[in-house]
Automatic annotation (TrEMBL):
Principal location listed in the UniProt entry: membrane
GO molecular function, one term: pentosyltransferase activity
Transmembrane domains' residue ranges: 27-45, 103-123, 135-168, 188-213, 225-243, 278-299, 311-330, 336-352, 359-379, 404-421, 428-447
Keyword set includes Ribosomal protein: no
Transmembrane as UniProt keyword: yes
Cellular component, GO annotation: plasma membrane
GO biological process, one term: lipopolysaccharide biosynthetic process
Protein's name according to its UniProt entry: Glycosyl transferase family 39
Keywords: Cell membrane, Glycosyltransferase, Membrane, Transferase, Transmembrane, Transmembrane helix
Pfam families, A to Z: PMT_2
Glycosyltransferase RgtA/B/C/D-like domain span: 82-241
Length: 532
């Protein structure tokens, strides 16, 4: 009986500790900082940049620093109109702080993580209660979508932060009617637009417009539409860079930035990134791992909550707007759904605190472990039907490239899932335990394996070029992380006789009659063109 009582007391202490209610507040802070270091900082430092997105954005930021042209986004000397300038400025600041390397380009996203966690905690504590705020913090820290996006060298972390801040302040305005809250909502929307374009305005304005129409709150709708100070602030923050790009590049900027990368992405699949209407349902499962079972259990409680409270209704509209908008869009990428994940995390936290976790988390870990264990064989099997020589060369030996530690992680994850099914711990302890394990597996097994498969040949080629001080042009390949690792610009064009070229091996073999192979890896090569 004494042992059982001690065990019960310890479990209660863990729950109290994780809710920030124990006297060990400094230990809790140290625990959180340690988790962020292990689960975010160290992987951001060790993992190579992933192409296309991370590699391209890092290369543009590096080129901006080297050229000193802080107003223009260029890749290999050519205008690069994919995204607005804010991310590149922030990555350039990372370069100034920690020097060149993958961590420099990811540092700004890690800063956004800290700001977003803090802002979301404060918001939930103010609008719901402190316990739900702690549930939200822990679920947010370990949701797989957050883990990936908020340490990636992409603008999405800051877009999520600014969208969240704008909607949080908009909700503050609905309850306080203070002009300052509304103005801040416009300010953060302006920064969201500068972070990734018009989608920031679409999500924030669309959420409140739909909510106020549905609730027939015409007075608040009128106040928002006629808030000239807020609109002015939004314009002053977001428009100058857009206007400058039009002045510098004219219609080319309009055609590519708005025509191709905004309207074009909505109207037709870009770079083959299409999908079925169920695409984002599958993405939602993956992005909320290991907490998707909690989301399923939250659907009906969230519905009832949204009928009773303004906050829950706005959160639901926010999420539904994002998932419906991008389901209708032709181009589909999983991280687009991340713009609507914050309200999902808050709803999961609210309902998990009310209704507990049961056995869903344990079963999820078991299923994930089984699926991930089979991934190397599934990749190799898919390559047997693949006709692209580059993909076959790069991924065709997937089972030979996977290391023992990958399967050890899967075994640990599966055994932990079995234990969780039967464990009698509190809900928050189960959430944190499953979240830590899932995030460790994601970072140190899944992403590590993905880097080995996709990026290692690119990194090795770039390091060869750098160590031998070769001047290189790029042909027949889009892997801009090569520029960053090789620390040089590599013009994308057909090489002339005598020049060194980096490209896909099979393309170089087909395009040139005679080459000297300087370095060869899986799917890619560095060669000197002897005869065109």
């Amino acid at each position: 009986m004494f042992v059982l009582k001690q065990d019960s007391n310890f479990k209660n202490w863990v729950e109290t500790f994780l809710l920030g209610e124990s006297p060990y507040s400094r230990l809790l802070v140290a625990f959180i900082v340690g988790l962020i270091a292990v689960l975010y900082l160290w992987p951001a430092l060790q993992l190579p940049l992933f192409d296309m997105d991370e590699g391209a954005y890092a290369a543009v930021s590096r080129e901006m620093v080297l050229s000193g042209q802080w107003w223009a986004t260029m890749l290999n000397g050519e205008p690069f109109f994919h995204k607005p300038v804010l991310m590149y400025w922030l990555q350039a600041l990372g370069l100034a702080i920690v020097g060149d390397g993958s961590f420099a380009y990811r540092l700004s996203s890690l800063v956004a993580l800290g700001l977003w966690l803090w802002a979301t905690f404060v918001f939930v504590e103010r609008h719901i209660d402190r316990e739900t705020a702690w549930y939200t913090l822990w679920i947010a820290m370990f949701s797989s979508g957050i883990v990936v996006v908020f340490k990636a060298a992409i603008p999405d972390a800051w877009l999520i932060l600014f969208i969240s801040l704008a909607i949080y302040r908009g909700l503050d305005f609905l309850s306080s009617a203070k002009a300052a809250d509304l103005n801040w909502a416009f300010v953060w929307t302006g920064f969201a637009t500068l972070a990734k374009g018009p989608i920031g305005l679409v999500v924030v304005a669309g959420t409140f417009f739909i909510y106020l129409i549905l609730t027939k709150n015409w007075q608040k709708l009128k106040e928002m539409l006629l808030a000239w100070q807020g609109w002015l602030l939004l314009a002053l923050i977001s428009l100058p860079w857009y206007i400058l790009q039009f002045v510098l590049f004219g219609q080319d900027f309009i055609n590519e930035f708005f025509g191709v990368h905004n309207v074009g992405r909505f109207m037709s699949p870009m770079e083959g990134h299409g999908g079925t209407p169920l695409y984002y349902i599958v993405a939602l499962v993956i992005l909320t791992l290991p907490f998707f079972p909690l989301l399923v259990r939250s659907i009906l409680p969230w519905w009832r909550w949204s009928k009773a409270e303004e906050l829950a209704k706005v959160l639901a509209i926010w999420f539904l707007l994002v998932i419906i908008f991008f389901t209708l869009a032709a181009t589909k990428l999983p991280h687009y759904l991340m713009y609507g994940i914050p309200p999902v995390i808050i709803a999961i936290a609210y309902c998990a605190r009310q209704h507990g976790t049961r056995w869903g988390l344990g079963l999820t870990l078991i299923v994930v472990a089984l699926v991930l264990t089979s991934v190397p064989w599934l990749i190799e099997l898919s390559m047997q039907q693949e006709k692209n020589p580059y993909l076959v060369d790069t991924f065709g030996l997937a089972t030979e490239l996977v290391e023992l530690h990958y399967f050890i992680w899967m075994l640990v994850l599966g055994l932990a899932g079995l234990w969780l099914v039967w464990a009698k711990w509190g809900s928050l302890a189960k959430i944190v335990f499953s979240g830590i394990l899932m995030t460790l597996v994601l970072n140190y097994a899944v992403l590590d394996y993905a880097a080995e498969l996709q990026q290692k040949p690119i990194v090795e080629a770039a390091e060869f070029v750098k160590s031998n001080q070769l001047e290189v042009v790029t042909c027949c390949i889009e892997m801009p992380s090569f520029n960053v690792v090789a620390q040089q610009l590599t013009p994308v064009r057909m090489p002339q006789a005598g020049e060194v070229v980096f490209g896909k091996t099979y393309e170089l073999e087909q395009r040139f009659t005679q080459v000297e192979w300087l370095w060869q890896g899986r799917g890619v090569s560095v060669a000197r063109v002897l005869k065109e």
